[in-house]
Design goal:
Blueprint lengths: L2 H32 L6 E2 L2 E2 L6 H13 L12 H13 L3 H13 L3 H10 L3 H11 L3 H5 L9 H4 L1 H16 L7 H12 L4 H20 L6 H9 L9 H17 L3 H31 L2 H4 L3 E4 L2 E4 L13 H9 L2 H17 L7 H8 L1 H4 L8 H20 L4 H29 L8 H13 L5 E3 L5 H8 L2 E2 L8 H12 L2 H21 L5 H9 L5 H7 L12 E6 L6 H6 L16 E10 L2 E4 L4 E3 L3 E4 L2 E4 L2 E7 L5 E7 L6 E6 L4 E6 H4 L2 H7 L8 E6 L3 E6 L2
Parallel strand pairs: 5-6, 5-7, 13-15
Antiparallel strand pairs: 1-2, 3-4, 7-18, 8-9, 8-16, 9-10, 10-11, 11-12, 13-14, 15-16, 17-18
Helix pairs in contact: 1-5, 1-6, 2-3, 2-23, 3-4, 5-6, 5-9, 6-20, 6-21, 9-10, 10-13, 11-14, 11-18, 12-14, 16-17, 17-20, 20-21, 24-25
Cofactor: Mn(2+); Mg(2+)
Membrane topology: Multi-pass membrane protein
GO molecular function: metal ion binding; oligosaccharyl transferase activity
Amino acid sequence: MNLNHRSEIYNVIIAILLAYTFAIALRFIYVSEIIHVKAFYWHGQLMINNVDGYYYAEGARDIIDGVKSNYLSPTNAPLSLLTAYLAKFFHIPLDVLIFYMPGVFGALIVVPLILIGRALGNLWMGFLAALLGGVAWSYYHRTMFGYYDTDMLTVVLPTFAVWAVVCAFTQKNEKFFFLAPLFMSVMQWWHDGLYNVTNGIFIMSFIYVLYLKFFKKQDIYKETIFVLFLIIPLLKIGLLPQLALILIYQIAILKFKVSYFQENGIKFLLFVFFIYFLFVGLPWLSSIIKNSYFTRAVSKQEGGIHYFDVVNTIREASKIDWDVFVHRISGSWIGFILGAIGYLALLIRYPIMIVSIPMVVLGFFALRGGLRFTIFAVPFFALGNAYLFVLLAKFISDSIKDNVKHYAYYGLSLLFMLGVIYPNYKHMFKYVVPPTFNANEVAVLNELKKTAKPSDYVLTWWDYGYPVRYYAKVSTLIDGAKHSGDVNWPVSFALTRPQLPSYNAAILDVYLTQKDYEEHKKFDFIKQVMEMYHLKSPTEVEKFLYNKINLPKIKNDIYYYLPFRMLNIFPTVALFSYIDINTGEVNDRPIFMQLLIKGVDNRGLVLAKGLILSKNGYLIQDNQKIPINKLILTYYDEKGKLVKKEETLNPKSQLNVIIMRSFGRVLILGNKMLNSTYIQLYVLENYDKKLFKPVILTPWAKVYKVVK
């Protein structure tokens, strides 16, 4: 190793350390903002702020404990395995590890960005890109401390793959051809959705080879060998077989010189692409077109029954506007525009960078597919900013005297980049997200863990499935992955209908869920209930559940977990079972409004949205008086016990009002919602003793046990 090469390696290491330290340091802003909030701690450790993280945390916990608490535990998930091994090797408490891992691993994005800059001949450009790419708005959101999820490496790994492809084409060193397919295989193992990026990189690499052949008139012997290498990660044979093939092919490349490639490279390349397109490309394109992000609708039909499609209720999977899109990628309009200009200039100057286009396209897919996709475009818009800034700095510095030209180049380009970083830095102080559950809610689950067994089921909405399993060590019916319309229907029904049909649905749902998992069958609640009770049509199922019926015997106990936070999504919960299963239309939407109390004046209680609850029991809006059926006041006394006061004002009215004084809000709801199991058991603590037994009653969450 000569001195110049050694000096360059030192410069790369220093650049990586500086950029990584910068990315980590800014992530501690979040910690400094929440460190004094007691409700964010459990057992002395800050809790994570991403509900999906509890899924992988459950798997890691069970690996560490050497047990599998239930069949839903992801003990084979890469993130769970990585977390468990780190916890065991470094003896780090699991709750500490899952909080800090996202930032520690997410900040690694600086490494491939710096290496890409070096591969293109400008290490400084890579360093500048790393400063922005590591902290840009959406990337920070999904790799901040507490955001424990696969996102911590979902962009890092494919960016490494892009770097490895760039190196392969620019250096043409066969010894390192294995790096790109290695990263591509590992990234698909880490997250199978990255198969789309792998296909995109392969196609762009193929196009680049054609560019070299027909426009640059270059020999493509080595490039052909390399592109063939990139097919291995596309073979759906599993990680270990892929790694074995990569090793075999790498040895073959170094050991044999195949003259056929050199003489007929383009013919063989076209033949391989034809085979790829026929057996890999077409199925891949077909799967993309059929994806629910493209076919989203009000409802999804399953075997003649219409269910509400959950993708329509997930905020991060919803369409976003250009302003949100721009800020999430670059932090500001000026940063986005400069990044776009710089990226286009980068593609023109370095055509090899077309291999990054699949990630940028995936980032732009956020406009339709939701904000979760913006992070894929962040690294390359950061490179675009960096490239533009070094061009501008060079242009300006060239007009300056030689003795300060060098300093002007670095100083100006850094100043430009800091100007683009600043809006992202300011945003970090505003983006202070609470943990998924607060300490009061976790205390309820911790108490439930002492009563329930791992085989017992907790019925709650899918948003809370993962943390419930993590803290209470129980089983759930639905969660963040198991939440399609057919499995959501019975849970929605149980939460939004009166107590008898809710009781029936819960027992049947647990019975059928357990049976289906044991027998490995496709689960559909409505169809199986029809079969069990010889019902003629799906519409009969709901009416049937309102009756006293002969229920199957179940070994598992069933608990209802009813948190206060469910009030915020209760209308959405209702949509899944208030849908016409024959047509997919939601015609019978129940009445439910939750309004904050703004104050009191001479007219009565002042509510949000311009509503007044008058002293004589009317809702007033725009001088229109709306009569009320029942007016209910609830509050918690000094001992945390619920106090209720109920008054019937106008029995003919379909509207009811519940004043939740302890929470400073009012519920306006129709008779159906008033009689729902969630409202009766959580808000009012009215329960049928023959059906339910209270286990834990707190203002933040309540647990009832189903009486069998």
